[in-house]
From TrEMBL:
Keywords: Membrane, Transmembrane, Transmembrane helix. One of its GO terms (cellular component) is membrane. InterPro entries: DinF-like, MATE_fam. This is Protein DETOXIFICATION. Pfam families: MatE. The lineage of its organism: Eukaryota, Viridiplantae, Streptophyta, Embryophyta, Tracheophyta.
Amino acid sequence: MQSRILIARPPCTHLFQNHTHQRPLSLFPRFKISLFPSNLLITSAPKARRNCIKTACISPARELFEKDSEISDESDSGTVSVSEQVLEVEGDGAGSGDRQTIWHQMKEIVKFTGPATGLWICGPLMSLIDTAVIGQGSSIELAALGPATVMCDSLSYVFMFLSIATSNMVATSLAKKDKNEVQHHISNLLFVGLTCGCLMLLFTKFFGSWALTAFTGPKSAHVIPAANTYVQIRGLAWPAVLIGWVTQSASLGMKDSWGPLKALAVASAVNAVGDIVLCSFLGYGIAGAAWATAASQVIAGYMMIESLNKKGYDAFAISVPSLEELRTVFGLAAPVFVTMISKVAFFSLITYLATSMGTYSMAAHQVMVQTFFMCTVWGEPLSQTAQSFMPELIYGVRRNLEKMHKVMIPFFLALAVTPPTLSLEGTLLAGRDLKFISLSMSGCLCVGALLLLLISSRGYGLSGCWFGLVGFQWARFFLSLQRLLSSNGVLHSDDLSQVKLEKLRAA
């Protein structure tokens, strides 16, 4: 006689399905053994009938472990012996995920944030290398880097919405354990990135000189030829830059920061060697720096693609999104776009005002702003960490808002103004509180711009502009902090009901 085990796990289907329609023998009371609320029923069945075991609907919230289980058939009389059955049930309020300590979470964050810090350092480091090498040769070319980097580097941050949208959507899909949806999002965003890159290439080709002339004004017309040379060469790498951002952000959304770090480390080395060889030894000046940077960006983009392919995804699969998918992407990206354009506009306004102060003031501002970016970039990995880790706590199976509150207290006490500002904004982006962050950033832009114009008109010079930047940063910090601690913040929202959460756990 053979036996079968039926684990009642509603609303799931039966774990055992019979492929022959034979009527089972009657169930004897002595064969009914209750091991936990989900009953374990042992019933007898004819020897001739073979059963097919199927695993169905075991959720992560209730793990089942069986150790050394054996059911022996001692005789045809129907005596069944169970040698050992060890069952461990993980309830909703317990489990290895919920038992994780804050110390363990901090170690995970450090493992991710450490390499991510290198990612954000590489970009400003390449610009700082350009500034240092060109500054050794010509003050005019050094001054020309100011408006030129606004057209290349600062304008590229407008498309940071691609990076944020990719990281957010990938992390959210992974929290739902849907790999096909992850690949679909990546393919759609690669198409958007490639399209934007080609459009920017055409813009810099046909309108780059006009934009530089409008930006610098008549007082600094002598720097336009050098700046335009730099912009035209760097513009050739626009498609590679935006494709690289999408693939890099996809890897970061998967909590992998080592792959992108390797790519950018190689790119930074290529840029440094290229700058030294082309500018210092061959004397190409600002054009040599542009070629070195463009080549390094193309190399970085290719290595980002290869890094994503090694994870089992196809970064060469570019699909045209439907209108509904485009609405979804731009519904997430539009508020982020407003946020980034506000930041870029404010920093660009500082550079614009510096251009009216003469060549030496422009050159000094270029050195100061690159040094400033090199220092403030240390907070960006915390923003990316929030976007990569918090979707799992906000939307995923491991949703736990109380745990997020506990992490915030030491977080605020340990950091200065710029890092927590970026971290708080990253949390708002992860929670998709996009309307608030776009409106707050627009408000900071308007007030900050008026403050800068007032400072400039009163003759406070370059130092006054930088004091305006201090006010801009502190305003961002307090607005984001107030939003997170308010009753309308993402940490207090309860968008997912318990029924939806249970369905998500069972999926």
